[in-house]
Design brief:
By secondary structure, this protein is an alpha+beta fold. The protein has helices at residues 4-7, 15-20, 64-67, 90-95, 105-108, 113-116, and strands spanning 30-34, 41-47, 51-52, 57-58, 126-127, 138-141. The chain is built from six helices and six strands, in the order ααββββααααββ.
Amino acid sequence: MKHFWEDKTLSELSQEQWEQLCDGCAKCCLHKIEDEDSGIIYSTNVVCQYLDIDHCQCHNYTQRSVLVPECVTLSIENLQQVYFMPATCSYRLLAEGKPLPPWHPLLTEDKESVHNSGHSVRGKVISELDIDDLMHHLTGEWD
């Protein structure tokens, strides 16, 4: 039996199915810095102030793009331009014709599997409210 994401294209998914694709890693909530000269994107260990760092969920998900204008609401229309999504992002993987990773909650039927596998930001980040200089929190190149 095929799963809904294997049976449909991303543009054919319902809004509910689209939302279910998110694995809850919260890597997209990490602050990133782009080198203007090289175009290289560097990641930090700092997340948006609205992210609940224990549960990897936005405190105000429905208003996130209003509260934080830089927060991108991912959609089928902008998926190809959102080059800063992590390599493990379900939307990116499916757009590239790749399968979901084995730890994805849709496959494991366990919302904790992304955290238990070490693929989320849980336990690895601090809130932007707790820093004074983002440059001191670089973690490396973004993939």
